[in-house]
Amino acid sequence: MNRKAVFFLVLFFGVLQAMVFLAHSPRGREVRAIRVLALPLYRGELVVYRVFHSFSQLLQEKEVLLAENERLRRELGMLQSENVLLREEVERLRMEVEAAQIERRLSFEVVPAQVIGRDPYDWLGSIVIDRGREDGVTEGLAVVTYQGMVGRVEQVYPRYAEVRMLLSPSFALGVLVQRTRDLGVLVGDGKGLCLVKYISRTSQVGEGDLVITSGLGEKIPRGVVVGRVREVRERSGDLFKEVVVEPACDFSALGKVFVIR
Q: Is residue 167 within 8 Å of 190, Cβ to Cβ?
């Protein structure tokens, strides 16, 4: 509202007050006429005043509510940030506990790591972890979870490493069918399953058999769970059976892994 509008508004209310004052004083017909004219205006002034007063109170309450809302929003943001930090600390401690449990189970030293990257063009082939050469990670080491084998370290950098997963067609691993003791070579099919080659056609391998690492590799220990036999394929005239293995590890939900040193 500009200055002229304020001036005329003040002047208007001043005239109204003067008219009301005259209207309430006993001074003849003229005064009574002014009274008849002024009283409705006076009542209108009261209505306008009450409206403006209520509006002013609403504006003040709105400002208070907005300030309180902003304060609560800042506090909520701080609490959410603290909650995220606390969760990350709990997750770090949990990984350390799980690493100790895996060490006792496998009798090997392990390095807990977090998956920090995945190739969108090779989603089932490789991952990136947040541990590297400075953490004692080297090429060829096995990467596992509680469920079983994930893959093998392929490239190592000072603070991170690339892992080739066993679902990749370029991955190859010596494995053992635990029940029949058949040795073979496991490769990924690039579609979520693995194939075990060089299983003799006379083998008694069957659906549900457990497949583990054979330990014949240079850095992969024996006995790490790989998966279970899902299907056995055999064609007339072939020297070997083709064994389809469903991996034990859930590759769609990889978050934390462990590198066996």
A: yes
Residue 227's pLDDT is: 95
**Distance between CA 54 and CA 60 in Å, rounded?**
10
- Looking up residue 226, the CATH number of its domain turns out to be 2.40.10.340
257 pLDDT above the threshold of 70: yes
Distance, CA of 115 to CA of 251 (rounded, Å): 11
Q: Residue 220 and residue 229: Cα distance in Å, rounded?
A: 21
Instruction: Provide the pLDDT for residue 28.
Output: 46
Separation of CA 36 from chain center: 75
pLDDT (average), residues 89-103 = 65
The CA-to-CA distance between both ends of the chain, in Å, stands at: 77
| pLDDT of 234 strictly over 50 | yes
pLDDT of residue 207: 94
Three-class DSSP category at 108: coil
- Looking at 73, 107, 141, the residue that finishes a domain is 107
Residues across the chain: 261
SS3 136: coil
Q: Which of 107, 130, 164 is the last residue of a domain?
A: 107
Per-residue tokens: 64: 């208070």
Residue 123: helix, strand or coil by DSSP?
A: coil
Backbone angles phi, psi at 192, to 5 degrees: 110, -5
Full DSSP string of 74-95: HHHHHHHHHHHHHHHHHHHHHH
Lowest model confidence (mean pLDDT) among 35-44, 53-62, 130-139 = 35-44
CA distances from 2 to 54, 67, 199 (A): 21, 27, 94
Residue with tokens 């549900």: 208
Domain range for 199: 113-261
